[in-house]
Amino acid sequence: MSVEGVIVGLIVGACALYLGRHAYRMLMGKPGGACGCSDCPSKTVTPKTKGT
Amino acid sequence: MPTTIAVIGNPNVGKTTLFNALTGLSQVTGNYPGVTVERKVGTLRINGTTAHLVDLPGTYSLAARSPDEMIVVDVLLSQQAGEDPIDAVLAVVDATNLDRNLYLVSQLKELGKPLVVALNMCDLADKRQIKIDTDVLSRELGAPVVRICANKRIGIDALNAALAAATHGAPTVHVNGPEFPEALTREVDALEARLNHGDHGLGRHVQRLEVFRLLVDRGGYVEARLSQADKDIAGSLDESRARAGAGASLAAIEARSRYAWIRQIVAAGVRKPTTRVTTVSDKLDAVITHPLLGTFIFALIMTIVFQAIFSWAGPLMDLVDAAFGAIGESVSAMLPEGMLQSLVVDGIIAGVGNVIIFLPQIMVLMFFIAILEDCGYMARAAFLMDKLLSRCGLSGQSFIPMLSSFACAIPGVMATRPIGNRRDRITTILVAPLMSCSARLPVYTLMITAFIPDTKVIGGWLNLQGLVLTGMYSVGIAVAIPVAWTLKRTILKGETPPFLLELPTYKLPQWGTVLRKVLRQGKEFIVRAGTIIFAVIVVVWALSYFPHSDEITAMFEAERAKVAASGMSEEEQSIAISEIDAEESGAHLRNSYFGRMGLAIEPLVRPLGWDWRIGMATIASFPAREVVIATLGTIFYLGSDVDETSDSLKTVLHESTRADGSKLFNIPVALSIMVFFALCCQCGATLAVIRRETQSNAWPVFAFGYMTALAYVAALFTYQFTTWLGWGVVT
Fold first, then answer.
1. A37:B408 CB<8 A
2. pTM for the complete prediction?
């Protein structure tokens, strides 16, 4: 396989993996902020207890 | 251990402004565990020690029904998981509307914690000639009252000092609170004794305030929570309530007793002008909330916004377009011809570039929405819509989430939290994604600028393209009303409680707030373009490029060789080679995985006037609807003889043809695409948030199903009807 093929394969593979993870998180109800929306509930942090 | 102070008040009293003034930048924002109610905690230095300030959601009363109010009650009663017990309460009240604000204060007094009252908006009270004697008010309330003006940072030091005194052992002054009928007090006493001394299975001390809410709020949150822990409670409550109220509503008894107490306090400490001072807000409201004039003004404002989207953003969009064209050309020149060049130029630059072009329009839209929100107009719009929404079983309370959804459905769905009635809340959640969010704007703009004539109408006052855009934004509202009506009469049948809406005073927009909102929306759009859209487009490119058949390449190489050997003139050869190039691109695309899938689904989308390329671009955009622009860019650049992205996408779409050589796009096809995108739920993030908010898989599935079906039927009708009208004739 050519160097060009390897580069293209890596880019496409990484994007496919990213989309797969995104789809999985969507199905699990964890948008994870990938949509870019700052209001995303799962992007917010779990509250720290006082004094920590 | 740092002190914890809860900041509480009615909605729109400047609670968050005061919270920001007290804590500055030292804030942590998050959610309360298990629910999606925002939790904001800030740090404050009082007398050299650290105190935590917890900003609670705005509420009118502690009779909790909505998720926001439940959190308020739990935090105040120290029943919120992960939250430290509250040491003191800072109640923020609106000095111009003391009667209503003191209702919550009267309930807070029963908590028995140190209480400080911040009298906000004193400047407005002065303007309205309302004189408040804070010493008298302090004495009557048994709590320090501090005059402040949070947005001007007036009185913050005095408030800090009062908080310091309250949290460092200043003696609590006992004053008599509201006087309730003896029967009610007796029942509360009896219930409190039973819950705290009997074998009730709660395993903790139940505070008097909690017992009071349990008895008075029939079907309320406290009853639901305590009944869950101890089934016996529910059984005896009805008898206790009957004895306490002697047939009358306990909620009405509570309100009467509290307002009687409030009237005494106000009579002692507040002097109001005998005639009501007519403010500028009052004068404006007479026009803006007028049923006819107000509706006309609302329509006018929306029309101006959509006209401005085209006229203001146009020059900036041309600049971005030209920049991406230039990038595409230089990258083409730098990379050798082949699959990497195709990925970068036809995939990434054509795809992502065509989406980024719409950034200026989104920012212009957000600029107007932010101004309308900040100056207080949006509450008036909700007031105007209340009558219309009440006819379909919703209230004006549902209009705020629907308006938020014009920016993005995610905050819109989350803005339904204050809706206490679950059926109303779910109905609002289900119709909110029908509002045209900013992600739909690129789809509308592309189709409108490419296929709707840029002509002036109505005596040259309005632009036809702007009018069509206004129409597309109206589609969502027009469809949401009958959908809500149907839902409220079928699967979500139920009474709608009356809607009380506070109209905040008009004010000039704070440009810093407006700018922050515009920049945030812009950033979110770029993040989407750089993550999900980028990833989808690379995968779409791969599916549209592979398998790059050597046979097809060889076949067209042979064609080119024939042309070269044919003895044609140079000009004739160039034309023939261009045609062969276009045919080869088309043949590769049809043979690709994407092409094969597209040809398989084409019968499904043909009735909408689409070909397989539009169908596949639409399917690819189900995770995020802006992807359709990127996908159209990639498919149409790959499948045409255009080598560079210098030709704008709308030009390429204009020139695209079907297999029989006829033009692919015309006005009915463009309208059909826009209507489909206006109504379809192509946003994975929105569906995930619906799941979160409803705590159910069924509602997001239902939302996706009904919106997709609705979109298909509406797009089908649009295409067939406008074709029948003869709009499809290409001149």
1. yes
2. 0.69
Shortest distance between the Cα of B692 and any Cα of chain A, in A, equals: 6
Q: Which pLDDT belongs to residue B705?
A: 95
With contact defined as beta carbons under 8 Å apart, do B331 and B344 qualify? yes
Q: Is B532 on the interface with A (CB under 8 A)?
A: yes
Cα–Cα dist B228/A33, whole Å: 35
Q: Count Cα neighbours of B479 within 13 Å in the Cβ-side half-sphere.
A: 25
Of A18, A25, A38, the CB nearest to B535: A18
Q: How many residues does chain B have?
A: 731
Query: Are B7 and B27 a contacting pair, CB within 8 Å?
Result: no
**Helix (H/G/I), strand (E/B), else coil: B594:** helix
pLDDT in tens, B654-709: 888 887 888 889 999 999 999 999 999 888 778 877 887 787 889 999 999 999 99
> Which residue type does B165 have?
A
User: What amino acid is encoded at B586 in this protein?
Assistant: G
Strands (E) across B442-532 are located at 456-457, 462-463
Residue with tokens 């980028």: B534
Predicted complex ipTM exceeds 0.85: no
Residue of B222, B218, B202, B192 lying closest to B69 (CA atoms): B222
pLDDT value, residue A47: 36
pLDDT, averaged across chain B: 83
β-pairing, B38-46 with B270-271?
Answer: unpaired
A–B CB contacts, 8 A cutoff, strictly below: 120
Does B29 contact A23 at a Cβ distance shorter than 8 Å?
no
Q: CA-CA distance, B365 to B333, in Å (whole number)?
A: 37
Q: B412 with B635: CB under 8 angstroms?
A: no
**Which has the closest alpha carbon to B680: B524, B479, B451?**
B479
Least confident of B291-305, B365-379, B598-612: B365-379
> Is residue B148 within 8 Å of residue B160, measured between CB atoms?
no
Mutate to test the interface with A, among B532, B534, B683 (most CBs of A within 10 A): B532
- The answer to whether the beta carbons of residues B630 and B354 sit under 8 Å apart is yes
pLDDT, tens digit, for every residue of B80-92? 777 778 889 999 9
